[in-house]
Amino acid sequence: GRLAKARQFSQQAADFARRSGQKEMAATWQLHAALREAEFGNAERAHDQATSALTNGSSRDVQILGALALSSAGDPGRAQAMSRDLEREHSADTMLRYYWLPTINAIIAINRSQHSKAIEYLNVANSYELGLPPPNPEFGASLYPAFVRGQAYLLLHKGHEAAEEFQKFLDHRDLVANNPLFVLAHLGLARSYGLQSDIGKARAEYEVFFSLWRDADPDIPVLMKAKIEYARLP
Fold it and tell me: On the chain, which terminus has fewer CB atoms closer than 10 Å, C or N?
């Protein structure tokens, strides 16, 4: 949760790549940072970073990260156009078809309040979600399909189903490694248990989340929202 420090390191990496003439790599580092901002609740900053990065790169990996970041930052229109271009240009790419595109399209569906449709998009990812397909936004497997599926179930007020998705992160801790979605999965579990009126488990998961982020920057939107939710528990 030390987001300001992460921004600094990401910017240094992007600047170094740019000075070395590696524009695609610079765009990739920018998009890693944009995606992190989106997941932590800084949608406007994420959108600006993603838009800037996409002016410097156009490779498959850059387009995937760009579509993922823009959809997560609340720009479903542009993300959908990029998703269609990727599908057309890389129709034989298995991990694109069964991991990344379903994830991107599911996030777009969530943005449009089509939560059940998001679940449908992700059905094809079941056999692939434990993989580490490039581009990998952070160190360790992201389990992105499971994470987005869990978010969709939360929005459908299906706490039990949501908990099953977020539990995958704990069950596969060795794969997830240092990916920040692992920490956010604890928050997802807390919300899932809250929907099930299991206040004891919800409180415990919030406390795990706060413990893992005990040194986090205090102004991260997802952290501030979690503190409000925790304070409202019975």
Answer: C
DSSP state of 233: -
With beta carbons less than 8 A apart as the criterion, state whether 99 and 77 touch: no
Tens digit of each residue's pLDDT, the chain (234 residues): 999 999 999 999 999 999 999 999 999 999 999 999 999 999 999 999 999 999 988 899 999 999 999 999 999 999 999 999 999 999 999 999 999 999 999 999 999 999 999 999 999 999 999 998 889 878 777 899 999 999 999 999 999 999 999 999 999 999 998 899 999 999 999 999 999 999 999 999 999 999 999 999 999 999 999 999 999 999
Closest CA to 189 of 214, 213, 219, 209: 209
